[in-house]
Amino acid sequence: MAELSEQTIEALFDESRTFPPPEEFRAGATVTSDEILRRAEEDPEGFWAEEAGRLAWRRKWDQVLDWSNPPFAKWFVGGKLNVTESCLDRHLESNGDKVAYYFEGEEGDTRTITYRELHAEVCRLGNGLRSLGVKKGDRVAIYMGMVPELPVALLACARLGAPHSVVFGGFSADSLRDRINDCDAKVLITCDGSRRNGSVVNLKAFADQALADTPSIESVVVLRRTGHDVPMVEGRDRWYHELVSDQSTECPAEEMDSEDILYLLYSSGTTGKPKGVVHTCGGYLTGCATTHRLVFDLKPEADVYWCGADIGWVTGHSYIVYGPLANGCTSVLFEGVPQYPDKDRFWDIVEKYKVTQLYIAPTTIRTMMKWGTEYPAKHDLSSLRVIGTVGEPINPEAWIWYHHNIGGDRCPVVDTWWQTETGAMMISPLPGVTTLKPGSATFPLPGVFADVVDESGNSVPLGGGGYLVLTRPWPSMLRTLWGDDERFIETYWTRFSDPSSGKWVYFAGDGAKRDKEGYYWLLGRVDDVMNVSGHRISTLEVESALVDHPAVAEAAVVGRADPTTGQAIAAFVTLRGTATGDDALLAELRQHVADKIGKIARPASIVFTPELPKTRSGKIMRRLLKDVSEQRQLGDVTTLANADVVQDIAERAKGVRAAED
Ligand code: PRX
User: Fold this and answer.
1) Would the CB of 393 count as within 6 Å of ligand 1?
2) Is the pLDDT of residue 494 over 70?
3) Superfamily of structural domain 529-660
4) What is the pTM of this model?
């Protein structure tokens, strides 16, 4: 494939340049007309009901949507199902031997798991969990690496109707503990360790630290993955293989109401405390399955689909586990990272499994751009049909690079905007229909109603920017925050709703503009949430972790623009008493944040300063720190109580280099 140099990218990139679906693609695409969008716009409930009808229901619903008590929605009211019957059982008769997952381990070890095998494994673990006393409604925490037993664990919980709460394997012991305690999980499923970038992460050791202070946990199930010695606590810890060895491969599925909870997933918000986003069964699965099928132009009989996310995040829940399995498709499940053992690992996998759809984050694409085109060029990527991105805005240069070097100029790029809270994609191209513009997520999907509004909630005419909102309920929307209805209303439904006139509008927390043709261009978060490599991290959470260190008096954290990771965490710290801001303390503070939250939250840079810029009422002016971090002309400093301090910080910041990892 032709080398795409920086100059060529610039020449190719032109804001007005558009990419209609290529003729060859359209010829084979399932949806090629915008009729579906019109139909869904005219009758959204009819559209969603038709989609829900593709799932396996034990009892059909009586009412599609109950919005009589907003913002608490109920979808497919009265419907009964168990999502695992849609994801597994119904495929067995005609497709039992079809591959559900091609597992590719980090060290090159592989496993091929058919739908029948997956079903059996889920049943065995389901029975094992039942033997530990897990029943409908009990919460089960899951803290594992990317191994086949991870989707098995999610599905086994779903089989029993026990809401799972997956905690990303990169989170610290403290984060795991807080998430377990917030929902009083009864059981934890974990691994001895996980493999990452050539080394072993000792998950069980982190779990043990967390478990020192988790009174609700009765049992711990430990999968043997890395094989290193781990201490097992008598009476509490059980080996996974021992738990499932004598279990039956049939496990009756609990009958769930459409609105029963399927899972919780904690996500960072504007306060220091992560919130437990609640998803329910019927609507969530409808959202995942529909969008997965439409956005990837899925042909389950022929496709090998690969989402490179981790199941610890919502992308993995919706587009590695629930959506793909409901659609009966074959997926790749990859344990490792793009650079191990070499920088062509992803392309090696695409070639090896003849991957047809690839779904990754812009940050990965930008990293690969830095590595150069020789890595993808070594491999045959001609099996790819649709390539997607998620998690953060994709800059047009990265889009063009991806389209050309990975998609061979023939694969539509689907830039999908959504959130943990939305459960499924909301704004995205339909690859056989939508003319693409690099950097734009294009239009709301069928059955999704979005708008861009100003401060007072009025729709901004095309061509203008403002706040992104969703104006109608959708099936996969979060139902509440675990144990905190008030925060649910406050966070998402207060800013632009007008309950007195019956107007309920969901505020996503993102800025967006629409161009004259109505294309949506996402502008990033408008709250105190950072997006680092597609991961949501709250500035307050990092600040709390920093001030928790005995040497730190005060801390302010901002997300600074970064060419690879989207944003990088920039911290400003004042120290207590005689502590000195030297390299040793800097390293210690970064490690401290990693211990408190996880490595992903480590500040890239820390500036030590005797004072932070504050208003007269004592509020830290983060906006100015962002200007300093991004080396911009300083904004208005007139409201500051200590204006000269900003100049001093700007001088100090000049000498600070970002950490490399
Ligand atoms: O700011 C938006 C950004 O990621 C946030 C949601 O993060 P999370 O709940 O962790 O879910 C990530 C995976 C769905 C959003 O509020 N975001 C996500 N996708 C895009 C995006 N920003 C721009 N373009 C996208 N395609």
Assistant:
1) yes
2) yes
3) ANL, C-terminal domain (3.30.300.30)
4) 0.93
